[in-house]
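Supplementary notes for students who missed Thursday's class. We covered one full example, reproduced here. Read the sequence, then the structure, then the short commentary at the end.
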Amino acid sequence: MAEALIAFGGNVGDVRETLDRAIAAFADGPKVRLLARSSDYRTPPWGVEDQPAFVNCCIAVSTVLPPQALLAHAQSVERAFGRNRSQERRWGPRALDIDLIAYDDLAVAAPELTLPHPRLFERAFVLVPLAEIAGERIIAGIRVDDALAGLDRSGIEKLPPR
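Structure (token representation):
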């Protein structure tokens, strides 16, 4: 079994409900099992700033799926929740976004998948929830808590439990 770290987010519709349902669909049984889930965080938009705030969270899972199959699983969950990447503006509004952040200590550089996620250490909206569940985890030689210490966290708000 491998351990993978996954980021979830969205800013269209009832995002917290969508995240709950999407995580349940993603970590749905013996092939992908939920180990930990962060709190939900309201975060400012990144990339395209003229859009509603996002809600983001991270999960840790154990999985028997190899990285490319786990990515395919994530994309099938996105599609089940109405995501059509071909009709979206990059970094624009979306009901659901699922990103593979890390998969054990594996490094992958393929056209469809790069691990660890190539912009992980630039994104407080991922590192804040990730640090909650895996702050001591070392990714690409950097401890998650240390990576977060160098980023601006302004505008990121931990949401109360539902």
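Commentary. Helices lie at 15-26, 67-80, 124-134, 144-149. The chain has one domain: 2-158. If anything here is unclear, bring it to office hours.
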